[in-house]
Amino acid sequence: MSDTPTVTVQPVDVRHRYEIHVDGVRAGLTAYRDRDRQRVFFHTEVDDAFAGQGLAGRLVEEALTDVRARGMRVVPVCPYVAKFLKQHHEFDDITDPVTPEAVAWLQRQLG
Ligand SMILES: CC(C)(COP(=O)(O)OP(=O)(O)OC[C@H]1O[C@@H](n2cnc3c(N)ncnc32)[C@H](O)[C@@H]1OP(=O)(O)O)[C@@H](O)C(=O)NCCC(=O)NCCS
Predict the structure, then answer these.
(1) Which of 29, 58, 66, 97 is found 20 to 30 A from 89 (Cα to Cα)?
(2) Which domains does the chain have, with CATH numbers?
(3) How many angstroms is it from 56 CA to the middle of ligand 1?
(4) How far away, in angstroms, is 80 Cα from ligand 1 center?
């Protein structure tokens, strides 16, 4: 039997988020709203019990890979996603800038 935990990332479209699970326990999420073909990420969190293990990086990498597969683009309002993109240039071709219009739109969406 292996001690290596099973880590999975899954889109939860109805809740506008991707979730990461470790051995079936939800450990974190990254949340977005869709603005036409742009997926605007605004918040990422990993539970304290799972912090510092690279889970946020794994979560965001798989989320952005899914965004690409859907033919969509990324707007990184979330500071963690923005930092991730500065370190992972393989997503440059699907990344759009955070504009004042996008931020205002997001604020209206989130009420
Ligand atoms: C930020 C957070 C998601 C990181 O989760 P994690 O699984 O421990 O992160 P990882 O191990 O994958 O990555 C750690 C990296 O996150 C960076 N980080 C930590 N807090 C950050 C923040 N608020 N904004 C941007 N980056 C952050 C660290 O500097 C570290 O960077 P490095 O890899 O270059 O050293 C987690 O600490 C958290 O939930 N924080 C509270 C909510 C929050 O501030 N979310 C970010 C803005 S929405």
Answers:
(1) 29
(2) 7-110 (3.40.630.30)
(3) 7
(4) 6
